Amino acid sequence: MSDTGYWLPIILYLLVGFAVAMYVVLDGFDLGIGILFPFFKKEEERDQIMNSVAPFWDGNETWLVLGGVALWAGFPKAFAVILPALYLPIIVLLLALIFRGVAFEFRWVAKPHHRKWDIAFAAGSTMAAFAQGLMLGGVLQEITVANFQFAGRPLEWLTPFSIMCGFGVVAGYALIGAAWLMMKTEGEVEQHARRLGRPLLLLLLAFIALVSIWTPLQVERIAERWFSLPNMLFLSPVPFATLLLAGLLWHGIRKGATLLPFLCAVGLFLLAYLGIVISNVPYLVPPSITVWEAASHPSSQLFFLIGMAILLPMILAYTVLVFWLFRGKIRSGEGYH
């Protein structure tokens, strides 16, 4: 394999991973507030919650599109397997995001008859998060592949493990959403978010522990990756860092910190994401298709990377600018629309 054929897939793999991580963090908090929406009963509280993400939510989904396009352009063989293997949860995800987006815009113009849009916003956010967990579980439990084609059953992804992953992602997004409200709101919304934060943290830690135990028990190669020497010594900082961030998050919630809980919640998600990558690298479709086997022709990858070298700084600049312009807390009655 030439140097170009070796390194270009790795660069694109890192790009896909970065886009997915950015989506999980940035769209995670606005999906999270939708999941938490039913726990806030007063209309002024719900308005304050919606206004806290109004400048950000639609730009955050750019990263989902970027990750999907990078997978399609850079790794078409993996894309051709993952898509048919996960058709139904992908369709549910897209429909849920559509319902959520429409509800976000329409609830303002439908007042005072906006209850159905509140329900659509909460349901769309919850179903989108749950569908992402189903997709994650479907990939982690290994997709049946033959001759670089999906060879499994249509509902192969639907197992107790994938359902558990779905609930775990919902709990994680809800925690990030609560931490976002601690950072961006004041008054009763912030205090209620703090009351929700601690049980959500414990729930997320329970799901992380469950996945960490269940995955190596059902997949031998993952057990060997984590529990053989010297890998165990090299990888031991990951669970210790998870416990440290969980402790800091708990402390930040109790002490009334604003930024610390959000940073720690994001850190927990990124560590969990890192653990998944460690368990499966170098596979894109574990355990059948590696990064290099799935890669498109080097000329196609190079063409895509040139385009991304132009586009990615623009997306990052826009993201940073929006977060800087709309920094600070949202008080009850304030808004951007």
Count of spatially separate domains? 1
Strand order of the largest sheet: 1-2
Strand residues, percent: under 5%
β-strand number: 4
Q: How large is the radius of gyration?
A: 20 Å
Distance between the termini: 54 Å
Shape descriptor: globular
The low-confidence parts are none
Structural class, by secondary structure, is: mainly alpha
The total of helices stands at: 15
Q: Share of helix among residues?
A: over 70%
Q: In words, what does this structure look like?
A:
The chain has helices at 3-36, 43-53, 57-60, 62-74, 76-85, 87-109, 115-140, 160-184, 188-218, 220-227, 231-235, 237-255, 259-280, 291-294, 298-325; strands at residues 145-146, 149-150, 283-285, 289-290. It is an all-alpha fold and 337 residues long. The protein has one domain.
Write the layout of secondary structure elements.
Elements lengths: L2 H34 L6 H11 L3 H4 L1 H13 L1 H10 L1 H23 L5 H26 L4 E2 L2 E2 L9 H25 L3 H31 L1 H8 L3 H5 L1 H19 L3 H22 L2 E3 L3 E2 H4 L3 H28 L12
Antiparallel strand pairs: 1-2, 3-4
Helix pairs in contact: 1-4, 1-7, 1-8, 1-15, 4-5, 4-15, 6-7, 7-8, 8-9, 8-13, 9-10, 9-12, 12-13
Give me a quick take on this structure.
With 337 residues, this protein is mainly α. It has helices at residues 3-36, 43-53, 57-60, 62-74, 76-85, 87-109, 115-140, 160-184, 188-218, 220-227, 231-235, 237-255, 259-280, 291-294, 298-325; strands at residues 145-146, 149-150, 283-285, 289-290.
